[in-house]
Amino acid sequence: MRRFEEKVVLITGAASGIGRATALRLAEEGAKLFCTDLQAEAVEQTVKEAETHGTEATAHVCDVSDPGQAKSAVQACVDRFGRLDVLLNVAGILKMEPTEVASLETWNKILSVNLTGTFLMCQAALPHLLESSGNIVNTSSTAALAGAPWSAAYAASKGGVSAMTRTFAIEFGKKGLRANAVCPGSIKTPMTSRSVLPEGFDSSLLQRLLPLDKARGPETVASTIAFLASEDACHINGEEIRIDGAMLS
Ligand code: NAP
User: Fold this and answer.
1) For residue 206, is pLDDT > 90?
2) Which residue's alpha carbon is nearest to atom 4 within ligand 1?
């Protein structure tokens, strides 16, 4: 399947986990890739692997929570490839803290990357996506759909991402632009393996974070993102798809 031949795709968070797996999936499908992340060396590595599929790819360091860097990343992508067809907002951070002791610093940081960063990238990309009748896939979470213990800031940020995605679908749908979201849950990535549960946590709440059978790898999310970003999903707009092994079923 080469659904992205001649399409230009900008991905945030492309150095690791779901973003990296998505970049490689789209490279296999012929996309021209503009891969961004905070991690310079790791995003270069993603690009090198993407190029083995015979596609053109560029690495770019960008902190999505910085308005200037978000704008420059989109501009650099358009300067490099002449257009933008798909924006995939995957960059994100998670820190689990019991709400009673959660710091304002953590709250602000999580909101600034996950929610404001997604907004800034979308806003910067919109003129180009409207020109190409392109689309956006944002990365929300099961935390946006059901209670997620010790994750007030993270859940709030992802709830905002889901709401914002539906807003874009309605605001720009008539102009030919689609906006959808994925809601992963319990995917094996560096983010989840790094996550530390709070000391003395209530283990009866843990099942809310676990899939029915087993945790899967980031390729399972990459394939859904690729579907939503492709013409196969041309009549899907303002939708969010859960990829969580029945965690919330
Ligand atoms: P990951 O392996 O940690 O990858 C996230 C990437 O985003 C990392 O390279 C990270 O860099 C980068 N990043 C962090 N802050 C950034 C910023 N300000 N600007 C640009 N890049 C930044 O995590 P993942 O599990 O693949 O998660 C990808 C997305 O899926 C996130 O939005 C996450 O919330 C969402 N998600 C994941 C799961 C799951 O089970 N894994 C479930 C639901 C939703 P650093 O390493 O420097 O932080």
Assistant:
1) no
2) 16
